[in-house]
Amino acid sequence: DQQVKQNSPSLSVQEGRISILNCDYTNSMFDYFLWYKKYPAEGPTFLISISSIKDKNEDGRFTVFLNKSAKHLSLHIVPSQPGDSAVYFCAASDIFFNTDKLIFGTGTRLQVFP
Amino acid sequence: DADVTQTPRNRITKTGKRIMLECSQTKGHDRMYWYRQDPGLGLRLIYYSFDVKDINKGEISDGYSVSRQAQAKFSLSLESAIPNQTALYFCATSDYRGEKLFFGSGTQLSVL
After folding, report:
1. Would you list which residues of chain B are within 8 Å, Cβ to Cβ, of chain A?
2. Which of A25, A29, A95, B41 lies in the 20 to 30 Å Cα band around B16?
3. pLDDT at A1
């Protein structure tokens, strides 16, 4: 039973446009969420996080939105750049601000083309 | 230099063989983790350790064992490898707050 779902395996976006990556979860106890980016032959790297007490968190071109009632979060990248082409994983934890037992989604491959 | 180093980067082995994957870190973090990634399944937690004497099973620990030799070293062993353990394995660390994970570059393991 997949508790964290990324239903779009891939996404293709033109450079300069907005990329929106989506993530749904089923466990209402989750209260800390993270996004990781992964390039080929490298490990995932932390991108941005959000706790359940907020509905939005921004870091430069990256913004994460959390809709607790819908059990949905999204990552917006504006503007998208070719270097953003990677696999993006969302992850969730039921321990506030803690990653000891993260549950990861299956990933979305983002391709940004010129 | 990488903060979290995994060796080997690639390994091919045969069914029934014992194999060890190693992880070392220079971040000074207490917490260390082993994850595996399979296509279509994301990353799943195998084991995690808060310090040398504190080791905990994760979601999919069957068929694996770990050893925390020092604060900086955490190894994963497959006592008798089987083909469905073919996967990409990641080691990760976090500080005492555990707010985010720092991953190594991964070990691609193939069991024939």
Report:
1. 4, 31, 35, 40-45, 48, 58-59, 90, 92, 94, 97-106
2. B41
3. 72
